[in-house]
Amino acid sequence: MMFHPFKAKKSLKISKEAKKVADSIKRTNLLDGDASGGQVDAFRHAYWMARLRQEIGKSAAKSLGKAHEKENYLTFKARKLEDGIVPDRISSEMDLYNNEQGLKLISKGSLSSKSGLIFRIVNAIQKGKMKIILKDKKGNFLTCDGKIILKEALTGKWKNNKCLVDSNIY
Q: Are 11 and 64 spatial neighbours (Cβ–Cβ below 8 Å)?
């Protein structure tokens, strides 16, 4: 994928911004504090896409989001860690879904403030408009029928029994 250098530079800046804002949100009690499969993870993706769309447009933002998820599959195959956890299919589905939701929250050139956008995304998450991965209070991944998935059952598997749920399930 070829990007205009200007868009590439903006994209990198926005990617760093999204991580920083998500880290700040993680330290509040607005969301669940879970940056790996939880509401904070959903927030980071939605905010990232919304800001990208605001700055570089919908199709460029969408391409970047899809490229990132394709990269996650390659990362999985190479067994490198993304945010301390090897990515898998469910995480990728979650990210793509939340990316789409983020794209819907703003338009290119919108003068909406960053704080307004943050509020809009947190609100959407609290209303269940994003997706998260089902876990118990201890952070264990659960199947859709509430059974704990042993870490050994997840190791080295792209496809697994993790369960994608609405972001307001808890």
A: yes
